[in-house]
Amino acid sequence: MHKLVVLYSKPADPDHFRDYYVTNHLPLVMNWPGLLAWRYSFDVAAIKGEAPYFAVFEGDFADAAAMAAARASPQGRRVAADVANYATGGAVIIHYPVQGGTG
Questions:
Q1: Is 65 exposed, middle or buried (0-12, 13-18, 19+ CB in 10 A)?
Q2: Cα distances (Å, whole numbers) of residue 37 to 3, 14, 84
Q3: Each residue of 28-60: pLDDT tens digit?
Q4: Cβ neighbours for 20, distance < 8 A, ≥ 6 positions apart
Q5: Which of 35, 33, 44 minimizes the C-alpha distance to 2?
Q6: Does the pLDDT at position 101 exceed 80?
Q7: In a 10 Å sphere around its CB, with 0-12 CB exposed, 13-18 middle and 19+ buried, how is residue 15 labelled?
Q8: For residue 103, is pLDDT > 80?
Q9: Which strands form 91-97's sheet, in the order they lie side by side?
Q10: 3-state SS assignment for residue 79
Q11: Residues whose CB falls within 8 Å of the CB of residue 8, separated by 6 or more in sequence, listed in order
Q12: Any idea where the EthD domain is (predicted)?
């Protein structure tokens, strides 16, 4: 599995971010080809001190090639272009292959 993570810094208008993200952005994300699962949160907290991020998104893909194809697709380009409509604080996008285990 390959994971895509988006870490959003605090926006200028948190209420607009939340509303726009749920109403407009997530419906675009749900149309990404190859997206196996997704999750997000606006309740990002740090173990110690203030969290450096306001919100987080996680998307799961079968592998790095599936993620790259999704991002390059017309739907992926729409998702990327839409970020400017709500993420005024900026976003950090990372991705990595997931290693597994059980506890």
A1: exposed
A2: 10, 25, 23
A3: 999 999 999 999 999 999 999 999 999 999 999
A4: 85, 86
A5: 35
A6: no
A7: exposed
A8: no
A9: 37-41, 55-61, 2-8, 91-97
A10: helix
A11: 17, 53, 54, 55, 56, 57, 87, 89, 90, 91
A12: 11-88
- pTM value surpassing 0.85: yes
* Residue type at position 87: A
Residue 35 CA, chain-centre distance (Å), reads: 12
- The amino acid present at 11, given as its one-letter code, is P
H or E stretch at 69: helix 64-72
CB 35 within 8 Å of CB 70: yes
Q: 39: part of which helix (H) or strand (E)?
A: strand 37-41
Task: List, for residues 57-78, the tens digit of each pLDDT value.
Answer: 999 999 999 999 999 999 999 9
Paired residues of 4 in beta bridges: 59, 95
